[in-house]
């Protein structure tokens, strides 16, 4: 892919590499992989078609069972013009103790003109003394649709502590591929040792999520609708905000959520994804068939 990730990914040999290019597939209307490469601890399950829309679904598998200190992962996904794809994971991403240094995951995404990518990963579970740095760089055409769903869960601790991990950083950049202008720079940092107990951090909640949508039909009316929808989830606290930036035609929203159960966040994110699929593409609700 052009415009590679920051040089940090080149300074160490990744323990897992996964590159995937998806095209629109031609007359049959089915999107399909035209370039695919994996090495090390990352694999991808053969594609599935969950409905008759032509959208192809891929499942990423981390064969090592969990991420360890010093691990580096390199993921690159390109969805070409008019193609439709859904990428998910087989199970939660588990971050164990990292005395050798932080786990780093670099993900580069490019979504072409009138293309669709829904990136619906399972939750990230951070265990005690874990440090995880995630860098996600996204390039979108103004006519494309992009959905990103993420949840963060504290791992089991023998003393019952909920925030025993050292640090989690989720760094996300979204750029307009037609102009090169930056649309979103989001840096979510969770550092329990410095923030636990302080007012306004996570209050009494233990789990957090973020949900990003960038699409031509995002507007304030949709943001207001999602904020009203949140009122139907009494065990979830959160809010949606409209995103915008000068020099780009990209339109988007960011939803931040807090809860005490991972399932609540996953189901909420799936409900919103399904609402948008039906409204914008007359597509059935998302059904990942994992359980």
Describe this structure in words.
With 291 residues, this protein is mainly beta. It has helices spanning 192-195, 220-230, 262-281, and strands at residues 16-23, 32-40, 42-48, 56-62, 72-79, 84-89, 93-95, 103-111, 116-120, 124-126, 131-140, 145-154, 167-176, 182-190, 207-214, 236-243, 252-259. The strands form 2 sheets. Strands 3, 4, 6, 7, 9, 10, 12, 15, 16 and 17 form a 10-stranded mixed beta sheet that branches. Strand 13 (167-176) and strand 14 form a beta hairpin.
Features:
single chain; 291 residues; mainly beta; 10-stranded mixed beta sheet; 44% strand
Structure in a nutshell:
The chain contains three helices and 17 strands.
How are the SSEs ordered, and which strands pair?
Blueprint: E1 16-23, E2 32-40, E3 42-48, E4 56-62, E5 72-79, E6 84-89, E7 93-95, E8 103-111, E9 116-120, E10 124-126, E11 131-140, E12 145-154, E13 167-176, E14 182-190, H1 192-195, E15 207-214, H2 220-230, E16 236-243, E17 252-259, H3 262-281
Parallel strand pairs: 1-5, 4-6, 5-8, 6-9, 7-10, 8-11, 9-12, 10-12, 11-13
Antiparallel strand pairs: 1-2, 3-4, 12-15, 13-14, 15-17, 16-17
Percentage of residues in helical conformation: 10-25%
Gross geometry: globular
**End-to-end distance, in Å?**
34 Å
Q: How many DSSP H or I helices? A: 3
The poorly predicted ranges are 1-8
Percentage beta strand: 35-45%
């Amino acid at each position: 892919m052009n415009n590679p990730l920051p040089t940090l990914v080149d300074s160490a040999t990744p323990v897992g590499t996964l590159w995937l290019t998806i095209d629109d597939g031609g007359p049959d209307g089915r999107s399909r992989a035209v370039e695919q490469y994996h090495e090390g601890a990352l694999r991808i399950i053969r594609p599935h078609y969950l409905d008759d829309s032509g959208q192809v679904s891929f499942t990423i598998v981390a064969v090592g069972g969990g991420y360890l200190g010093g691990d580096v992962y390199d993921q690159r996904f390109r969805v070409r013009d008019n193609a439709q794809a859904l990428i998910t994971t087989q199970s939660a991403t588990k971050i164990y103790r990292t005395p050798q240094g932080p786990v780093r995951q670099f993900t580069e995404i490019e979504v072409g003109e009138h293309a669709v990518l829904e990136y619906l990963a399972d939750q990230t579970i951070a265990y005690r003394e874990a440090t995880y740095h995630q860098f996600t760089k996204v390039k979108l055409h103004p006519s494309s649709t992009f959905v990103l769903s993420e949840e963060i869960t504290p791992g089991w601790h023998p003393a019952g502590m909920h925030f025993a991990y050292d640090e989690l950083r989720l760094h996300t950049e979204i750029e307009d591929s037609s102009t090169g202008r930056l649309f979103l720079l989001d840096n979510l940092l969770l550092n329990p040792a410095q923030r636990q107990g302080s007012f306004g951090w996570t209050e009494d909640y233990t789990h957090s999520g973020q949900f990003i949508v960038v699409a031509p039909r995002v507007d304030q009316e949709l943001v207001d609708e999602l904020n009203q929808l949140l009122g139907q989830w009494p065990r979830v606290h959160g809010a949606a905000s409209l995103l915008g930036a000068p020099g780009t035609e990209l339109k988007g929203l960011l939803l931040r959520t807090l809860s005490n159960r991972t399932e609540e966040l996953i189901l909420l994110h799936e409900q919103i994804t399904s609402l948008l699929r039906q409204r914008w593409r007359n597509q059935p609700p998302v059904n990942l068939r994992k359980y």
